[in-house]
């Protein structure tokens, strides 16, 4: 809409100039003058795409009829768009146009000579038609660039403040985990080692060794997490994240704690994305943890099914055979697991089964 109004304004001003109301009257027929003004208005309307046609029409109209509105608007857009050598080239072209117009005015004499060939009038007209709009365009562009620079600087400062706040929060979490969680797990490992050394029988010694091994693995994973928290972007330095290749070791740990775990694989096993494998491993890990917490030594089936475009994981436990021990929990395990699965575009389903069992089922695109 803005360029439509601009085109209409240039058409009206150009028509008034060539008819003599705002410039030198022309002896051309009115239809010709209207056509010339219409061409100028059309070029101004197209300035949203390219203002060079407007500059060409303005140069021709200025030399031929001293029709200055197109050249005035083109000079403003030149100030908005040009810099350096291109701006110097435009100024050189404008000087050439003024020179040619002066020569043409001297040949035609009368009002044309007065407007374009008289030194004082020519300078005033060139300053009003070319210099002032060009300076205005440069001023507007400078202000726009300054505003954009200020906005980018504010955005950068906001990003830096947000990064600093995140870094401080990560450091705080890392300190809390080190001072509380790592300390408690270290005590657990030390007590398990002492129990292993003073075990009265082989079964107790094996159980203590298992607890110590799990605790040391937890400490290693915890150190890895703390390193990532303190140094964002740091790769895992202790050991790579577990995948389905580590699943049997996880199941063996649950079997050593008295749970009868059976693994079933369906479909043709194939390589899938590492993030999918890690998520599938975490599904089984969290489900087995819940079995230990809430179902005691209930028999559990773990199913890994390779579908055409997805990987399905099911962990189904029977009703508890003996009362489970009281293990504390925050209640966020399944919530975090659901978020992890949904981030990959999958779905997680949990439901109680007839007879007292429980099912955790995940479908992950792969």
TrEMBL record:
InterPro entries membership: HATPase_C_sf, HATPase_dom, Sensor_HK_TwoCompSys, Sig_transdc_His_kin_sub3_dim/P
Catalytically driven reaction(s): ATP + protein L-histidine = ADP + protein N-phospho-L-histidine
Transmembrane region(s): 30-47, 54-75, 87-106, 118-140
CDD domains with a match to the protein in the record: HATPase_UhpB-NarQ-NarX-like
UniProt domain Histidine kinase/HSP90-like ATPase: residue ranges: 277-365
The keyword Phosphoprotein belongs to this UniProt entry's keyword annotation: yes
Its EC number(s): 2.7.13.3
Residue ranges constituting the Signal transduction histidine kinase subgroup 3 dimerisation and phosphoacceptor domain according to the UniProt record: 169-232
GO molecular function: ATP binding; phosphorelay sensor kinase activity; protein dimerization activity
Keyword Transmembrane included in the entry's annotation: yes
Gene Ontology annotations for the cellular component aspect, listed alphabetically: membrane
UniProt feature coiled coil, ranges: none
Taxonomy, superkingdom: Bacteria
Record keywords: ATP-binding, Kinase, Membrane, Nucleotide-binding, Phosphoprotein, Transferase, Transmembrane, Transmembrane helix, Two-component regulatory system
PANTHER family, alphabetized: NITRATE/NITRITE SENSOR PROTEIN NARX-RELATED (PTHR24421), NITRATE_NITRITE SENSOR PROTEIN NARQ (PTHR24421:SF10)
Protein name: histidine kinase
Native organism: Nonomuraea jabiensis
């Amino acid at each position: 809409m803005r360029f439509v109004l601009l085109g209409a304004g240039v058409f009206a001003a150009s028509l008034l100039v060539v008819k003599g109301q705002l410039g030198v009257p022309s002896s051309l027929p009115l239809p010709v003058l209207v056509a010339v003004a219409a061409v100028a208005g059309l070029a101004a309307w197209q300035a949203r795409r390219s203002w060079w046609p407007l500059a060409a029409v303005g140069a021709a109209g200025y030399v031929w009829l001293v029709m200055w509105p197109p050249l005035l608007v083109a000079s403003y857009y030149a100030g908005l768009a040009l810099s350096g050598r291109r701006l110097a080239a435009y100024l050189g072209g404008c000087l050439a146009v003024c020179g040619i117009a002066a020569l043409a005015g001297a040949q035609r004499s009368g009002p044309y000579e007065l407007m374009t060939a008289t030194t004082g009038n020519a300078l005033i007209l060139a300053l009003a038609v070319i210099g002032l709009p060009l300076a205005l365009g440069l001023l507007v562009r400078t202000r726009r660039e300054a505003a954009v620079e200020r906005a980018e600087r504010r955005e950068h400062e906001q990003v830096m403040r947000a990064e600093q706040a995140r870094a401080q929060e990560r450091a705080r979490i890392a300190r809390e985990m080190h001072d509380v969680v790592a300390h408690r797990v270290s005590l657990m490992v030390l007590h398990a080692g002492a129990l292993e050394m003073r075990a009265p029988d082989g079964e107790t010694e094996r159980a203590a060794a298992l607890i110590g091994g799990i605790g040391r693995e937890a400490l290693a994973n915890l150190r890895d997490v703390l390193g990532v928290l303190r140094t964002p972007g740091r790769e895992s330095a202790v050991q790579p994240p577990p995948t389905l290749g580590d699943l049997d070791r996880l199941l063996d740990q649950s079997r050593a704690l008295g749970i009868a775990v059976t693994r079933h694989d369906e479909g043709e096993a194939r390589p899938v994305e590492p993030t999918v494998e890690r998520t599938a491993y975490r599904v089984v890990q969290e489900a087995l943890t819940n079995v230990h917490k809430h179902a005691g030594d209930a028999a559990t089936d773990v199913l890994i099914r390779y579908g055409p475009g997805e990987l399905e994981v099911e962990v189904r436990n029977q009703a508890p055979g003996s009362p489970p021990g009281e293990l504390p929990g925050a209640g966020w395990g399944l919530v975090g697991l659901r978020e992890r699965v949904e981030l990959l575009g999958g779905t997680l389903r949990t439901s109680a089964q007839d007879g007292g069992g429980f099912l955790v089922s995940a479908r992950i695109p792969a």
